[in-house]
Backbone:
């Protein structure tokens, strides 16, 4: 039995809500009390039936609407606008669309329209049922939301920060233009992939990044910030600062993560250079005086607790002023750099070698120290310097005067030990 016949049969069989005493009263209620607009158009595009809400839209009674053609009721402009959808419905297609419809007073509201062809028992289309709902508030809210999303998308695409959205399983959902500029991969290359699938994170930084990300996924934090080392598509490694926010529902479950990232390689490298410069001599790369004193203070505390000894070698280059005055400061600087390298080659890996100013160097011996270790290393340094130095086409002779002080015998703190070693060096220089 066709669907329409089943409906009629059900009504004739009194299969309608018990609050209605007949099928006729039920159909009357549909025509007058429903909030939807309902109409039936015959095959000549004339209106055969409308319910009360439909007629009221035009400030008419239902009997004033029935019998009129669609073009007469709506006007040529409105009819031309929805005619393509009407043709599709008359062809048997279920049609759904939204349009803005004007009222007789000139105001307009958005409506959602459904059109469904009605067929007789032979299957021939003999008209169209049309229903419509006012969706003006919904439409305007949706349009406002779409506009807001478009503005947000514009901000994201024009942000100086990379904008990356991750799913709850940490797949890439959004990859902004700035993300392409910073990391090199295009959106189509990474969307749907995990960061590990394209090696975004430097291997050494994986534990740090995983721990920080897991805090967001598990809901322990909703926001965090980190600096990590990342790989670009070209294989170059850069430092990036990441600002991450978790999308969390009312139950505390994380549904995704939004990340903002910026390339801070220059800043990180500058900070590292500053940290390096703070503790290293700019000319030789050795520890500077400040770093040496800090290391010595730490070593003294440890030695004081353990009862161990430590020693300082105070080294002054011989004839440095002569080389500087004769050949110029460039040659003098080259001599200091070679002297630094030679000192490192004559000492042990655990020893601290520092330049404390001018042509003065200090070696801190604080581990595996026997009674004769300081003298043994001092002789190695003296022998190494006795070979002279070749500075380009110039060969110069510049030995080393060395003084030794020991903790706790020659001093209990850094100043006393430095002064004692300095005096010993002075005596050695002037005893020749």
Residues:
């Amino acid at each position: 039995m066709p669907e329409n016949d089943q409906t009629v049969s059900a009504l004739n069989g009194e299969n309608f809500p018990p609050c209605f005493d007949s099928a006729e009263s039920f159909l009357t209620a549909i025509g007058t009390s429903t909030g939807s607009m309902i109409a039936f158009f015959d095959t000549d595009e004339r209106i055969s039936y409308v319910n009360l809400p439909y007629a009221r839209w035009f400030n008419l009674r239902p009997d004033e609407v029935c019998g009129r053609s669609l073009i007469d009721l709506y006007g040529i402009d409105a009819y031309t606008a929805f005619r393509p959808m009407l043709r599709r419905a008359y062809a048997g297609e279920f049609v759904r669309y939204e349009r803005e419809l004007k009222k007789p007073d000139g105001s307009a509201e958005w409506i959602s329209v459904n059109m469904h062809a009605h067929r007789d028992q032979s299957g021939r289309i003999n008209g169209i049922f049309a229903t419509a709902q006012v969706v003006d508030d919904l439409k305007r809210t949706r349009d406002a939301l779409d506009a807001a999303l478009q503005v947000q998308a514009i901000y994201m695409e024009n942000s100086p920060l990379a904008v990356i959205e991750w799913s709850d399983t940490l797949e890439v959902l959004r990859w902004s233009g700035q993300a392409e500029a910073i990391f090199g991969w295009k959106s189509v290359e990474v969307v749907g992939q995990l960061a590990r699938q394209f090696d975004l994170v430097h291997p050494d930084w994986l534990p740090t990044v995983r721990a920080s990300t897991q805090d967001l996924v598990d809901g322990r934090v909703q926001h965090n910030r980190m600096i990590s080392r990342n790989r670009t598509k070209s294989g170059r490694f850069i430092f990036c600062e990441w600002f991450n926010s978790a999308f969390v529902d009312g139950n505390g479950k994380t549904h995704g993560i939004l990340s903002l990232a910026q390339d801070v390689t220059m800043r990180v490298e500058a900070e590292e250079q500053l940290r390096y410069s703070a503790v290293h001599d700019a000319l030789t790369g050795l520890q500077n005086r400040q770093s040496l004193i800090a290391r010595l203070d730490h070593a003294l505390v440890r030695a004081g607790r353990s009862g161990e000894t430590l020693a300082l070698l105070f080294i002054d280059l011989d004839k440095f002023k002569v080389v500087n005055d004769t050949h110029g400061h460039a040659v003098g600087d080259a001599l200091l750099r070679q002297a630094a390298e030679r000192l490192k080659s004559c000492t042990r890996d655990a020893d601290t070698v520092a330049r404390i100013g001018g042509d003065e160097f200090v070696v801190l011996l604080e581990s595996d120290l026997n009674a004769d270790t300081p003298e043994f290393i001092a002789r190695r340094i003296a022998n190494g310097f006795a070979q002279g130095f070749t500075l380009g086409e110039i060969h110069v002779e510049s030995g080393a005067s060395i003084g030794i002080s020991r903790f706790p015998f020659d001093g209990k703190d850094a100043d006393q030990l430095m002064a004692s070693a300095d005096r010993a060096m002075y005596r050695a220089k002037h005893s020749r």
Summary: The longest helix spans residues 136-158.
